[in-house]
Amino acid sequence: MATTTKIGLEIHCQLTGAKSKLFCRCSSDYRGKAPNANICPICAGLPGTLPLLNQKTVEFAAMITLALGCKFPDDIAFYRKNYFYPDLPKNFQLTQYNAYSITSIGVDGKLEYGNGKDARIRRVQLEEDPGRLVYASGSMDTSVYVLIDYNRAGMPLVEIVTEPDFADPKDVRMFLDKITSIIEHLGVCDTKLEGSVRCDANVSIDGGNKVEIKNISSFADVEKALRYEITRQRTMASREIQVRSETRHWDDARKVTKESRTKEEEQDYRYFPEPDIPMVLLGSEFVSFIRQSMPELPDTRKERFMSKYGLSAHIAQVLIGNKELADFFESTLMIYLSPKEIANWIVTDLMSFVDERQKKEEDKQHLLFAGLKVGPEHIADLARLVDQETINRATAKQILGQIVRTGEMPSALAKKMHASRIDDASVLAQAVQSVFQMEQAAVHDARRNANVANFLLGKVMKITKGTADPKIALEMIQKKLKED
Amino acid sequence: MPLYTLEAGQVVEGIKNREFSAEEYISQLLGRIEKVEPKVNAFVTLNKEEGLNRARMLDKKIRDGEQSGPLAGVALSIKDNICTKGMKTTCASKMLESYIPAYDATVIKRLMSAGAIIIGKANLDEFAMGSTTEFSRHGPTRNPWDISRVSGGSSGGSAASVAALECTASLGSDTGGSVRCPASFCSVVGLKPTYGLVSRFGLVSYANSLEQIGPVGRTVSDVVSILNVIAGSDENDHTTINSNKPTYSLQERKGFRAGLVMEFTEGADPGVSKMIYNAADTLEKQGCKCEEVSLPSVQYALASYYTIATAEASSNLARYDNIRYGFDMNPEGYEWNSYFAKARSNFGEEAKRRIIVGSYVLSSGYYGKYYLKAHQVRSLLKHEMETLFKRYDVLIGPTMPILPFKIGERIDDPLKMYLVDIDTVVANLTGMPAISVPAGFADGLPVGLQIMADQFAEQTMLDIAYLFEQAAKVQRSPEL
Predict the structure, then answer these.
(1) Strand ranges (DSSP E) for B50-135?
(2) Measured between CA atoms, how close is B312 to chain A, in angstroms?
(3) In which order are the strands placed within the sheet that holds A117-128?
């Protein structure tokens, strides 16, 4: 039986590029600091403090709004979402809300994410991150107390909500990759920082009840969580059990979604407009300012790579798919302009040295090339050597294999290898000579039966302890058989 | 004449010209406080040592010929919902009984750098919610004119301390009349500035969209000196108006047009309205033109005020969960939800009432019926007022519809209590400035004249207040 699956996403991305929190002057660089060292009276919610809207975050959110093809309202406002939770210093969260009028910075967008598919964006909004709860013994179930760290409280978040336009978890993955690339290109969020991008998802099948999945710690796990949840719902449907409308949590260790321990009843958040933040008028002047000051988006960059550098769509896509790759590519071009050659070296060869672990998202804290000792100057040098036919492609690959570990310049290594090849040749010639002397009978046979040459090769390999290039050695043996 | 009877201007001049020292002045005030405080109960915390230290430092500055500031030596009581760094700020609540702020409110910073001395923190209704100062954890503040009666509220401590000569002047906060009501009841001058004129940074929020910090003094001139120091935009409060720092002065101006709001006089006690008509006569004698005017939407003002104020309050008071600050309460045996509930049961009756009402009007499905409608009334009122201000410089009427009543008289009838705010809430709902000046006495009890003006028309409002004050010559301080 065919089933229809509907998946919607709610993505939160921290505006780490904003330098300070959403409503105060505290640093947005809170990671690794002593607990509650990155707070001030405002983000700690002390009595008498007032929120001061960080203008930069509005600009960043506006860039995301434009990148996702959303429309701007004339002005934006903030709402209080009232609920009690120990990680909220004020016991309300400042966010945006569209029930009474449009106050969020972006609405009604659309993003094309690959293979001609697109998803509608319901809204883009600014809101504050709560603090962090640290359970004494690691989990809520076993702890007798909880510690609260407000260092994160008040971090600027952009929430991106999609319509339920996905049917396949693989598409969700492509969409999330595109979002990552966009916010990286805009410079608004360092997605490599732990917890800087988070995603909740909702799933329903065959028009049934919607299930929310929360607590998915990385974008990579979203796909897994969705696959699990779809299977769970399909299994229930096949047994004619109705799927309940509920919130489930992704259990990272067991790779399953599970019922929330605390039943989340229908909350009444008692939304009302925040009186302390005056409405922010956007206007056409602001929008055109954002448009002008906005960094190049990945799609535009891809087109430029194709039209200016003649790259194929596939190669260009791989490069812009990860801003680090695209930046590496362009830095290399600054040194030596051979776009196709360089793109190939990066996408095909250099990538093959990247640790499998790092290609996945589990270890995204590090740069892709962090473990490798190569920079753009190395790749530029290598491409130049190949272009000038100083070395052939096979040698170049060998060189790359070494320099990623040593950081030596390819041209220096090529010179050394050239010299050692000569040494190798004379050593090999000596070995062949001595085998011919020791195995005279076999040499005799070999002159009549070509297959015996392989026996001689075996002997050469034995003498050289396997270090000889068998192809070259065999050529040498055959040549010598003809000579004598 | 004892030093503690002096006006702010006289204090500043006297100290600057070394007729007396700041230390002498503060010592005399502390002596006065010791004498009358048991009767009045205007203070929550006294700042004796630090106050004297500040005075000595000021005296040294003056001896050394340094600049001393426009409020040098002026002793202020500060309503205990305005944050003072290192000095307890309790909001007269159990929830903040030992709370010591880590920062100074903007107004405090400005007053201190102008040379003012904080002599203590003044009593109030819990979180400024009340009209009598009876809802205080520290007991009611009594009216210096008759200590069996309420001082008004919620800035009762501020007005009573000024009337009882326990300080030069005071800062209160006015959300629905909280500066003007006690000023009227205690026969002193109290001003609520235009919304956005004075920074609220450091004022513990009750209803953010309505309230302003305002000065209380024995004369219009004292109120002006303080307003000049605290007014002006603040980078820590984005609702302050971005403009040059205003400076007000007192000018002898005549020929004003005043509208006497008939809804206010009609609804007042006969004794009160008689004094207000007398006040209008006084102004006419000074060359003002007074006419009766109507403000029909005023009938919705109280409902609108209590809807908006409680809605905002219910959310503002949510942070008092006893986690980051509060009082000693062992968390053992609670999970966080029950701990919050238990801790928050320590709010006083009136605060609880407003949290419940506010949560109700904001709850899902009622927003349009109450909160949105309350805002429509706000717009309507503002429109009516603006129309009137095209024809009149100011609107006048009684500040309070009744005379100061006995302590305990209305405490069990919240609705009756709310009704006394009818004349004052209009200025808060419209954001417009208003001042209460002593108009005289009825049955031996003070009556205040309220003067309202258009947004940022403080200067006009003050000119008329000054004109009236000079003409009416109302007795300033009670026998205690």
Answers:
(1) 75-79, 117-122
(2) 8
(3) A106-114, A117-128, A156-162, A5-14, A197-205, A211-214, A246-251, A256-259
For B400-439, what is each residue's pLDDT tens digit?
A: 999 999 999 999 999 999 999 999 999 999 999 999 999 9
CATH number (3.30.70, 1.10.10, 2.60.40, 3.40.960) of A425-483 reads 1.10.10
Domain count, chain B: 1
Distance, in Å, from the CA atom of B366 to the CA atom of B86, rounded to the nearest integer, reads 42
**Per residue in B143-163, pLDDT tens?**
999 999 999 999 999 999 999
Residue B78 lies in a domain: yes
Q: What is the 3-state secondary structure (H, E, C) of A289-306?
A: HHHHHCCCCHHHHHHHHH
Q: Suggest the residue from A58, A78, A82, A91 to mutate for an interface test with chain B (most B CBs closer than 10 A).
A: A91
- Alpha-carbon dihedral of residues A162, A165, A167, A169, nearest 10 degrees? -20
Specify the CATH number for the domain of residue B184: 3.90.1300.10
This complex has an ipTM of 0.95
Residue B195 lies in a domain: yes
Q: Report yes or no: B231 and B193 within 8 Å, Cβ to Cβ.
A: yes
Out of B101, B105, B208, the one facing A276 most closely (by C-beta) is B208
For B161, the domain range is 3-254+453-472
In a domain, B191, yes or no: yes
Distance from CA of A46 to the nearest CA of B (A): 8
Active site residues per annotation of B = 79, 154, 178
Partner-chain residue, chosen from B318, B324, B337, that has the shortest CB–CB distance to A92: B318
Residue B95 forms part of a structural domain: yes
Query: Measured between alpha carbons, how far is A89 from A93 in angstroms, rounded to an integer?
Result: 9
**Nearest residue to B438 via CA among B426, B446, B430:** B446
| Contact across the interface for A272 and B362, Cβ inside 8 Å | yes
